Amino acid sequence: MPQADVQLRPLFSPERIQQRVAELAAEVADCYGGEPIVLLPILSGSLIFVADLVRKLPMDMVIEVCGLSSYRDGTSPGHLDWTLAPPKDLAGRHVLIVDDILDSGATVSRVRAAVGQQSPASLRSCVLLVREPVNEAPDFGGFHIGPGFVVGYGLDFRGRYRNLPGISLLVEE
Ligand code: IMP
Ligand code: MG
After folding, report:
1. What distance in angstroms lies between residue 101's CA and the mean position of ligand 1's atoms?
2. 167 CA distance to ligand 2 centroid (A)?
3. Distance CA 93, CA 23 (A)
């Protein structure tokens, strides 16, 4: 149930999300051929997306995690803080950063910079939602969206709504 002062307007249904995730997985699989990769999801927003994505990827892989938090309270971006630093053994490996949404791009850029210092064999990013206008396009992007805060399928508002199977626009009254 949404809070009394917010409304949820459906944007992407669970079926549409599954279809797009399957298309993204096919693009990722094509790109790497048979090479093993390291998936690096950024907690916590990418949890649901990465769980679906990995089960559609055929190649050998390791799943690592890192945590970078910016939306601490409500919908305004705040200071970026590591809640879990990326692993330190990424040299020479093909690393794919995974996140729920690319908004300003600061979160993915920060992870890219930290991983890039380790000289991985390759470094790419895969995000489900890309907010227009785009500063720096991800290597793999799911849906392009406009303004408006979104929740569901891993995305939260003050820690809530991550469990919703579809993605909705959050409208504050
Ligand atoms: P960026 O650093 O500005 O690209 O913001 C990306 C991070 O902010 C994502 O990892 C999300 O956790 C969070 N975020 C940005 N926009 C939204 C939104 O509309 N709903 C929920 N979380 C969001
Ligand atoms: Mg996040």
Report:
1. 5
2. 15
3. 24
Ligand index nearest the alpha carbon of residue 111: 1
Question: What amino acid is encoded at 103 in this protein?
Answer: D
Q: Are 9 and 169 in contact (CB under 8 A)?
A: yes
The whole-angstrom separation of Cα 47 and Cα 70 is 16
Cα separation, 25 vs 29, in Å, equals 6
For the Cβ of 154 lying below 6 angstroms from any atom of ligand 1, the answer is: no
- Hey, what are 53's tokens? 């994505």
Q: Is 155 in the pocket of ligand 1 (CB under 6 A)?
A: yes
Q: pTM (2 decimals)? A: 0.95
Q: Who has greater pLDDT, 27 or 34?
A: 27
Q: Which two tokens stand for residue 121?
A: 């064999």
- Establish whether residue 105 lines the binding site of ligand 1, counting it when its CB lies within 6 angstroms of any ligand atom: yes
pLDDT of residue 86: 98
Nearest C-alpha neighbor of 95 from the set 113, 73, 75, 72: 113
Q: Report how far residue 101's alpha carbon sits from residue 27's, in angstroms, rounded to the nearest whole number.
A: 18
